[in-house]
Design a protein that fits this description.
Layout (H helix, E strand, L loop, with lengths): L8 H13 L10 E5 L5 E5 L22 H6 L3 H9 L1 H12 L5 H13 L3 H11 L16 H15 L15
Antiparallel strand pairs: 1-2
Helix pairs in contact: 1-4, 5-7
Length: 177
């Protein structure tokens, strides 16, 4: 009833929609922060987003586009459960708004492509060399598994599937997956 006095509910709705779409496993378990500008109204903020688009924290492809693993984690997050229970219409409306604008498949893929285009190949090679000790640590999979082709395919398939599941994406208001 008085949530607007304490939490920016729009930020929680955006957080929910964004992280479910991108399959961010950590988003609902432990990797969120509450931040404030006035010490009264709190916004939810993400960090440590290394488990996007089907990747695990090592950079391996671990979850298919239709994985519900992030949803299983979300069912234990009381803030998300209360959001689903109390704001289903707001979630659905905002989800549709986001999907028709900044989170359209075309826009998301364009942003990933734009980012990869501004990364000069020599810097990518230098980063890979420094993080793998010039190839000594070959267990780092991001050079072959986590690439723009994988992201394009995963985003396209994931977004189409989850468009059919808003607002709760498979979590019941009682918290069961």
């Amino acid at each position: 009833e008085n949530i607007d006095d304490y939490i920016d509910i729009q930020s929680v709705i955006d957080y929910w929609c964004f992280h479910v779409l991108f399959g961010n496993v950590d988003a609902f378990g432990k990797n969120q922060l509450l931040v404030t500008y006035d010490l009264n109204h709190w916004l939810i903020h993400a960090y440590d987003m290394d488990q996007f688009c089907g990747l695990d924290w090592h950079g391996n492809l671990a979850n298919k586009y239709d994985s519900n693993y992030p949803i299983k984690v979300a069912q234990y997050n009381n803030l998300i459960l209360k959001l689903i229970r109390n704001f289903p219409n707001e979630i659905t409306a905002r989800y549709q708004e986001l999907r028709n604008s900044v989170l359209s498949v075309e826009n998301v893929i364009n942003e990933f492509e734009r980012w990869t285009d501004i990364c000069p190949p020599h810097l990518v090679a230098e980063d890979y060399a420094s993080t793998t000790a010039n190839g000594a640590f070959t267990g780092i999979p991001s050079a072959t598994e986590n690439n723009i082709q994988q992201i394009r395919k995963w985003v396209t398939q994931r977004f189409a599937l989850y468009d059919t599941m808003a607002p709760n994406f498979g979590v019941t208001t009682g918290g069961e997956g």
